[in-house]
Amino acid sequence: MPEGHTIHRAARKQREVLAGDTVVASSPQGRFTDGAALLDGRRLEDIEAHGKHLFYRFEDDLLLHVHLGLFGRFFTHKGDPPDPRGAIRLRLVGRDATIDLRGPTACEIIDDDDEANLLARLGPDPLRADADPERAWARIARSRREIGALVMDQSVMAGVGNVYRAEALHVLGIHPSREGRSLSRVEFDALWATVCRMLADGERAGRIVTVSAEDAGMPRSRIPRGERTYVYRQAACRSCGAPVTSWTLAGRRSWACATCQS
Ligand SMILES: [Zn+2]
Predict the structure, then answer these.
(1) Which of 13, 139, 220, 252 is catalytic?
(2) Angle at Cα 109 formed by Cα 103 and Cα 113, nearest 5°?
(3) Final residue of a domain: which of 120, 149, 172?
(4) Among 49, 68, 143, 256, which residue has the fewest nearby CB atoms (within 10 Å)?
(5) Based on the domain organization, do 12 and 99 belong to the same domain?
(6) Residues 165 and 246 both lie in one domain
(7) Is 128 domain-assigned?
(8) What is the C-alpha separation between 21 and 17, in angstroms, rounded?
(9) Residues 32 and 84: beta-carbon distance below 8 Å
(10) Secondary element (H or E) of residue 13
(11) Interval 124-138 mean pLDDT
(12) pLDDT for position 1
């Protein structure tokens, strides 16, 4: 599933090519025909990301909510729209670009109440300027759940996925199995700052590279695929060389170095 940086990057890139345009909306696949008809011919005012959710604001207070889930993907075409291929749930055609959405978990028109309910279920998003880390701290500081489960719980922190969970906890020396309430305030502040930095970096670069240039011995842009993380999908820890252990935590595979993380 895409992590928050991918969603924010999609929002930014789509905003660049579509925001302000009056769009032609359709559902070539046919599963969003009524929704697309509501959007068709209206101006797309803004695109916003919150965690892994996207919100498209159209004139006349129409709001489109998209969640890609595991299989959803966007395709952007510049220039004239190509013939639709595959199961395109929603196609938005602007002045200079076309965006196709395939396979999302959610693609729906929602109202203000729906939006408020949705946002109330999401924790602060480290990539948003309005994020309030105190809300995440309030949950973590009193929880007996593992910190590795808490950081991926979208109601605690919105946007962190499996790669950043493994990597952020690793660089801070925090074992994912520690109870949330065992973290000190200093550790939490460092964790928040680290996920903010990592997600922002991923949003800019369009890929995840958590290993520093110093540790890699080369510029980060040149680090080969497979060597861009310290413990995620690594057999040996790229900080100390010790074997990396992996197990299932909160439904997803988790990686940690028992030497570096305690
Ligand atoms: Zn290590």
Answers:
(1) 252
(2) 125
(3) 120
(4) 143
(5) yes
(6) yes
(7) no
(8) 9
(9) no
(10) helix 4-18
(11) 97
(12) 72
Helices 162-171 and 185-205: angle between axes, nearest 10 degrees: 130
Tokens standing for 45? Answer: 């005012």
2 catalytic? Reply is yes
Q: Which residues are near ligand 1, the ion (C-beta closer than 5 Å)?
A: 237, 239-240, 242, 257, 259-260
d(CA 88, CA 73): 10
Whether residue 252 lies in the annotated active site: yes
Whole-number Å distance, alpha carbon 210 to ligand 1 midpoint, is: 14
Note whether residue 71 is domain-resident.
yes
pLDDT tens column, 208-249: 999 999 999 999 999 999 999 999 999 999 999 999 999 999
Q: Which two tokens stand for residue 12?
A: 């930014």
Q: Which 3 state secondary structure label does DSSP give 81?
A: coil
Asked if 187 is an active-site residue, the reply is: no
- Alpha-carbon torsion angle 200, 204, 206, 211, nearest 10: -60
Answer whether residue 220 is part of any domain.
yes
User: Structural domain of residue 192, as residue ranges?
Assistant: 133-257
Question: How many domains does the chain contain in total?
Answer: 2
> Distance between CA atoms of 234 and 244, rounded to whole angstroms?
7
pTM of the model: 0.93
Task: Spot the catalytic one: 9, 28, 52, 102.
Answer: 52
